[in-house]
């Protein structure tokens, strides 16, 4: 869906859902309603903070540090929930088509990071033919450092289990913790130069917002 915003795709997904949805989905609707007006929590990392050089895993399971995963200059680092999340699928697919080409023109790297095991990263990468780096943060070190870790509601966790998703089995650390969807632009010293956090996981940072942030950082605006 070239040129279509993430928000528009999310709305279309909601409209095209079944007329009689699975009653278990009501748990997620209630969770989302509670998040709709949630503010970014206190303590979230600010511009200028340096991220830890966390131990990560590539999609093939090989170890590497965050610093090794970043490019020279700026890197757009995307924290997402997992391959099971429909909103994450829309977002990363859109970043592949609408964000990555422009980043390549600028010499800017793109990397996505989640708490899931490497096989989940590989699933996401293969499903959408992603040409950018997809990583696992097995200790949630990056999300914790940024201050964006959260947990689904108990009702949502129960509904997930009924639908066949056990986050404690999917996540590399055996917990149900997830990052709030977050985009940070970091430099090659691991310093945050721009950050956008979404407590409501149904909303995401649009490609044009990322380009505008890069333009400001590079003195193009």
What is shown here, in short?
With 221 residues, the protein is of the alpha+beta class. The chain is built from 9 helices and 9 strands. It has a single domain, classed as Glutaredoxin.
State the main characteristics.
seven-stranded mixed β-sheet, two-stranded antiparallel sheet, 17% strand, alpha+beta, 221 residues, Glutaredoxin, 9 strands
Secondary-structure topology with pairs:
Blueprint: H1 6-15, H2 26-35, E1 55-58, E2 63-65, H3 66-69, E3 75-79, H4 86-106, E4 109-114, H5 118-127, E5 133-136, H6 141-146, E6 149-150, H7 154-162, H8 167-170, E7 178-179, E8 182-186, E9 192-197, H9 207-217
Parallel strand pairs: 3-4, 4-5
Antiparallel strand pairs: 1-2, 1-5, 3-8, 6-7, 8-9
Helix pairs in contact: 4-9
How much of the residues is beta strand, in percent?
15-25%
Radius of gyration, taken over Cα atoms and rounded to an integer in Å: 17 Å
CATH superfamily descriptor: Glutaredoxin
Uncertain stretches: none
How many alpha or pi helices?
A: 9
The largest sheet has its strands arranged as 2-1-5-4-3-8-9
Write up what this structure looks like.
There is one protein chain. The chain is of the alpha+beta class and 221 residues long. The chain has a single domain, classed as 3-Layer(aba) Sandwich (Glutaredoxin), CATH 3.40.30.10. 38% of the residues lie in helices and 17% in strands. It is built from nine helices and nine strands. A seven-stranded mixed beta sheet has the order 2-1-5-4-3-8-9. The chain has a two-stranded antiparallel ribbon with strand order 6-7. Helix 4 runs parallel beside helix 9. It is globular. The mean pLDDT is 93.
């Amino acid at each position: 869906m070239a040129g279509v915003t993430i928000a528009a795709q999310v709305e279309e997904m909601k409209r095209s859902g079944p007329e009689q949805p699975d009653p278990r989905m009501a748990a997620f609707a209630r969770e989302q309603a509670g998040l709709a007006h949630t503010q970014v929590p206190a303590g979230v990392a600010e511009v200028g903070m340096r991220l830890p050089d966390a131990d990560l895993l590539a999609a093939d399971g090989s170890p590497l540090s965050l610093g090794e995963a970043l490019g020279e200059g700026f890197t757009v680092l995307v924290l997402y929930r997992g391959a099971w999340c429909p909103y994450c699928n829309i977002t990363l697919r859109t970043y592949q088509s609408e964000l990555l080409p422009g980043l390549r023109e600028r010499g800017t790297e793109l990397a996505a990071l989640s708490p899931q095991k490497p096989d989940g990263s590989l699933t996401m990468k293969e499903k959408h033919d992603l040409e950018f780096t997809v990583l696992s943060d097995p200790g949630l070190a990056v999300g914790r450092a940024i201050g964006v870790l959260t947990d689904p509601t108990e009702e949502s966790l129960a509904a997930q289990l009924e639908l066949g998703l056990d986050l404690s089995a999917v996540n590399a650390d055996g917990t149900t913790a997830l990052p709030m969807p977050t985009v940070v632009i970091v430099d090659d010293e691991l310093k945050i130069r721009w950050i956008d956090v979404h407590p409501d996981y149904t909303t995401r940072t649009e490609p044009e917002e990322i380009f505008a942030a890069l333009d400001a950082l590079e003195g193009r605006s």
